Amino acid sequence: MKTKNFKRVYVWEVPVRIFHWINVLSLTVLVLSGFLIANPPALLSNAEPFNLHMFGTVRFLHFSAAYIFFFNMILRIYWSFVGNQFSNWRAFWPFTKKNWSNFKHVLKIDILLKNDKIPQDKDISIGHNSVATFSYLVMFFVALIQIATGFGLYADSSSFWLPKLFNWVVPLLGGDFMTRTVHHITTWVFIFFALVHIYLVFYHDWLEGRGEVSSMFGGYKFVNNKRIKNN
């Protein structure tokens, strides 16, 4: 039986892994609290009104997670200029011949479930593959829309300077209703992306056996030595 010579490679640095898991936690809080804010449940209680702070707590969690999400993204943008080659902004630039070839290769495997004839050691990226980098680039702009609409809605009731920077968003979109609609739609984009992302991470971990899942905990992947030389 033919075996391959794999080498343990440090791919995801500590700041990248911290960003990833903070993102997971903050988005989870944002989505759950956001749905409660959009459709608050009817609560029956015999407690005095001044003792009922559940909805205020939900709003506090939502706004706190929004600030964490925003500053976490700022730190990730900073790290895209000082991090290693796998987290650098150049790794997310999709318009190259090599990335286009890898894009088609990944689509054949992920969507059409075909066996590509292109050698694995030449086409599988050590970091993100081309489909992933393109999707992250799209989600970056979706995140900007989410941030702008969210802080735009919050601006009138906040005394902090940061939300006030987005006072222009609501008038631009024609009012609160349209701003909330855009904010709600982008939330579903994040949910759909998360479902696809989780599926593909586990799928590639099973298909390639390179530690795709564990790499976001420990930072290391197992890469074919030939692939390292080709890079």
In words, what does this structure look like?
The structure is a single chain. The chain has 231 residues and is mostly helical. The chain has one domain: Fumarate Reductase Cytochrome B subunit, CATH 1.20.950.20. The chain contains ten helices and two strands, in the order βαααααααααβα. The protein has helices at residues 14-38, 54-82, 97-110, 120-123, 130-154, 161-164, 169-173, 176-208, 215-218, 225-230, and strands at 6-10, 220-224. A two-stranded antiparallel ribbon has the order 1-2. α1 (14-38) packs antiparallel against α2 and α5 (130-154) packs antiparallel against α8. It is elongated. The chain starts with 5 loop residues before the first strand and ends with a helix.
Secondary-structure map with pairings?
Elements (H helix, E strand, L loop, with lengths): L5 E5 L3 H25 L15 H29 L14 H14 L9 H4 L6 H25 L6 H4 L4 H5 L2 H33 L6 H4 L1 E5 H6 L1
Antiparallel strand pairs: 1-2
Helix pairs in contact: 1-2, 5-8
Features:
single chain, 231 residues, mainly alpha, Fumarate Reductase Cytochrome B subunit, two-stranded antiparallel sheet, 2 strands, 65% helix, elongated
Strand proportion: under 5%
Q: Write the CATH architecture name.
A: Up-down Bundle
Shape: elongated
Q: Portion of residues in helices?
A: 55-70%
Order of helices and strands: EHHHHHHHHHEH
The largest sheet is: 2 strands, antiparallel
The figure for the number of domains is 1
How would you name the CATH homologous superfamily? Transmembrane di-heme cytochromes, Chain C
Q: Within the largest sheet, what's the order of strands?
A: 1-2
Low-confidence stretches: 119-123
According to CATH, the fold-level topology is: Fumarate Reductase Cytochrome B subunit
CATH class equals: Mainly Alpha
Radius of gyration over C-alpha positions, nearest whole angstrom: 21 Å
**Total helical segments:** 10
By DSSP, the count of extended strands is 2
